[in-house]
Design a protein that fits this description.
Blueprint lengths: L2 H28 L7 E7 L18 E5 L14 H5 L9 H8 L3 E6 L33 H8 L5 E6 L5 H7 L2 E4 L19 E6 L2 H11 L12 E5 H4 L10 H11 L5 E4 L1 H8 L2 H6 L2 E2 L2 E2 L3 H28 L5 H8 L6 H22 L3 E6 L16 H17 L2 E10 L2 E9 L4 H24 L2 H5 L2 H17 L3 H14 L4 H14 L2 H14 L4 H14 L2 H14 L4 H14 L2
Parallel strand pairs: 2-3, 2-4, 7-8, 7-11
Antiparallel strand pairs: 1-3, 4-6, 5-6, 5-12, 9-10, 11-13, 12-13
Helix pairs in contact: 6-15, 8-15, 11-13, 11-14, 17-18, 17-19, 18-19, 19-20, 19-21, 20-21, 21-22, 22-23
Length: 592
């Protein structure tokens, strides 16, 4: 072998070894030993156990981590940004909530990564790397308390603390497949916790075990012993569940079956939250600044998303604008866009937001009373791929914050409950109880948790008939079930089946038209109009869609458009006397 060949061989071997080293380093970066959850390891030990016959500390034997927004004496609180850490001194005392847990017998093992300035729900932080989601490693872990959720999901801690403003605990719990509890607003001390938005911030916690979640709750909420109460109503928000990008039965059926097992079918109730909030939160009309016949043109839940984000942005700037202007830190484009993209809120808009909070608080408490549970999806979308654009989109944030704002703005308590996987993504559901109903919510979770997991497994493992059918066949089956429910005047159930048909086959005008008919029956005229318009886009000769849209528009006050719809239905079907009569009636009343 010549010297040139020998040299070439050594070069190839060197490149190969270099490649192996680079790949090894990359793999270590992708999944580090602690999943990238921690920014700092430490240890705060509990006091000695009391002498018998006194009971041991309630949290004895448990370990926990805290998000890097909680002060620990002698350590700098980083707030998810290195410039914050550089410009602030170590804390002079430990946050009250952390001290309470340590005094209760738990051992604190470290501080965990948060999103930049705890402002995002993605879980991605370019300054400290993004913690790896143990349940779905290629997906985002959710934020802002990403590291705290990952620490629990990866079994590195028994429980952890996070800050929930508009989902900072609930989103990472959902994305990582664990439980996350947001207590009633101001139920837990915020002393020694960096604020994001004072009127929305709540200290929350994560756990895998519902018993651990409850034990932590009893210590932090200082709950005395009392007998548990069973819910007298479990309210399923059908319109919210229809937003989720998983089959409806993956959540609704699981909750219904578990409820029937423990409390009986009679406690189940269905509600359209969008309509309910339109009626009970009148200040939403002022916030939107546009109304027709007293009906808000935009979804009330979407408006709540805007209200929550406006309030969060306003209060964050009140708390931290001085520091940002002084230090001029490098901010992630997404954070900067959310903070400084929208125009400043006026004093009047801020006051309207506060009125909406008060009205929503009263509305949710009135709906649930002392013994009700509201069932909604935790999140509308599955976790995005790392670095994916959907998390930056307005549409994604609107869907997410619409659901998350219900508890954030009302101040009610909420728990995120995992329900296994669908297409390798975590699925979850959320239970909400009235403000101050934290014990009741934790007790209900303890009662239902095991059966919820059993029902989730059952749904996952029994797809036999559905898998044997094509999507179109399955959609037709759902439509027929919807028709049967409609005939039985079970309109909410019918809407659920029609929605399932649309998810399976979204290009069928009949499904939208049929769902519109059900919406008309329950008085959801905005949704009926939207469904009819979609049906007409798919089938320009859908007589029923024109007639039903005309009916919806008449109630909404769009009389000229209603007349046109009725006329066109009559043109398409000259024998349709109802359409002709409706057009003539409106013409005489409103057309000069």
């Amino acid at each position: 072998m010549g010297s040139s060949q020998t040299a070439s061989l050594w070069v190839l071997l060197g490149l190969g070894l270099a490649g192996i080293l680079i790949m090894t380093r990359k793999l270590k970066q992708v999944i580090r030993e602690d999943f990238g959850a921690f920014v700092e390891k430490l240890q705060l030990l509990p006091p000695p156990q009391p002498a018998p016959p006194k009971a041991p500390h309630p949290l004895t034997g448990l370990t926990f981590a805290v998000s890097d927004v909680f002060d620990i004496e002698g350590h700098v609180t980083g707030f998810g940004h290195p410039d914050w850490a550089k410009t602030h001194d170590p804390a002079s005392q430990t946050a009250h909530v952390v001290s309470t847990l340590v005094q209760g017998g738990a051992t604190c093992i470290g501080k965990t990564v948060v999103d930049e300035l705890a402002y995002s729900i993605s879980g991605e932080n370019e300054h400290y790397f993004t913690p790896t989601n143990p349940t779905a490693p290629s997906k985002t872990p959710g934020g802002s308390s990403s590291g705290a959720a990952v620490a629990v999901a990866a079994n590195l801690a028994d429980f952890s603390l996070g800050l929930d403003t508009i989902g900072g605990v609930r989103v990472p719990a959902a994305f990582c497949g664990i439980m996350g509890f947001r207590p009633s607003h101001r139920a837990v001390s915020h002393s020694g916790v960096l604020p994001v938005s004072t009127s929305l911030d709540t200290v929350g916690w994560f756990a895998k075990d519902p018993k651990v979640l409850g034990r932590v709750g009893h210590v932090l909420l200082q709950l005395p012993f009392a007998s548990s109460r069973s819910p007298r109503q479990i309210v399923i928000a059908d319109d919210c569940l229809q937003q989720v990008k998983v089959p409806t039965d993956r959540i609704a059926q699981v909750v219904v079956k578990s409820t029937e097992k423990h409390f009986g079918r009679q406690v189940l109730k269905h509600e359209n939250l969008d309509d309910y909030f339109n009626l009970k939160v009148p200040s939403l009309r002022k916030f939107h600044g546009e109304k027709t016949n007293g009906v808000v043109k935009v979804s009330s839940i979407k408006l709540l998303a805007h209200v929550a984000q406006s309030l969060q942005r306003h209060e964050f700037k009140q708390n931290h604008d001085e520091w940002i202007n002084l230090v001029n830190p490098t901010l992630d484009p997404a954070t900067s866009a959310q903070l400084y993209g929208p125009p400043e809120s006026s004093d009047m808009e801020v006051e309207i937001c506060k009125s909406i909070k008060n009205e929503l608080h009263a509305a949710v408490n009135s709906l649930l009373k002392d013994d009700g549970i509201l069932v909604i999806p935790s999140v509308a979308d599955p976790p995005s791929k790392l670095g994916g654009k959907p998390l930056l989109s307005e549409d994604f944030r609107s869907r997410a914050f619409g659901l998350l704002s219900i508890a954030s703005l009302s101040g009610c308590c909420q728990v995120t409950i995992p329900l296994g996987l669908h297409n390798k993504n975590p699925v979850s559901v959320s239970f909400i109880a009235r403000h101050g109903g934290d014990r009741f919510l934790l007790d209900t979770l303890q009662t239902m948790y095991t059966s919820l997991q059993e029902q989730a497994d059952l749904v996952t493992n029994t797809k036999l008939s559905k898998n044997a059918l094509t999507r179109e066949q399955s959609a037709e089956v759902s439509k027929e079930k919807g028709n049967q429910a409609f005939k039985a005047k079970e309109y909410q159930t019918a809407i659920g089946f029609y929605s399932e048909a649309i998810k399976l086959s979204g290009n069928n005008a009949t499904y939208y038209s049929n769902r519109a008919a059900a919406y008309l029956e329950i008085g959801s005229f905005l949704q009926a109009e939207a469904d009819c318009s979609q049906a007409i886009n798919l089938d320009k000769k859908n007589v029923k869609a024109y007639f039903r849209r005309g009916t919806a528009r008449e109630v909404l006050g769009y009389y000229k458009e209603a007349i046109e719809d009725f006329k066109y239905a009559h043109v398409l079907e000259p024998t349709n006397k109802r359409a002709a009569a409706a057009a003539e009636r409106l013409r005489k009343l409103f057309v000069q």
